Amino acid sequence: MENHFALDTAFHALSDPTRRAVVSRLMRGSAPVKELAEPFAMGLPSFMKHLKVLEGSGLIRTEKAGRVRTCHARRDRLQAVETWLAEQRGLWEARSDRLADYVENQMSWSDEDGS
């Protein structure tokens, strides 16, 4: 059940374009909040709400040194999301392959019958 909660909160966090952009940026390396907030046309308090959602989901962690808060991506949590998506992709690809095989078999039988 805990894994579902983690996925639920991760997908909720990733449902917002600002938060996805922050995660994308952090995948290139850690960054201070001020740098992360610069590309977005919103006040720092609004931006901090996005960071709070990301941190609550476990996708990022922050640490404060003096007056600077630095954000880090948590690749292990992103890996859990990627693993779930890969599992779903595999299931749907297998279903699609079985459907394609079925259709091909039906077409070949139709050709043999001349119908």
TrEMBL record:
Residues 1-93 form the HTH arsR-type domain. Signal peptide: none annotated. It comes from the Bacteria. Pfam families: HTH_20 (PF12840). CDD domains: HTH_ARSR (cd00090). NCBIfam families: HTH_metalloreg. This is Metalloregulator ArsR/SmtB family transcription factor. It comes from Roseibium salinum.
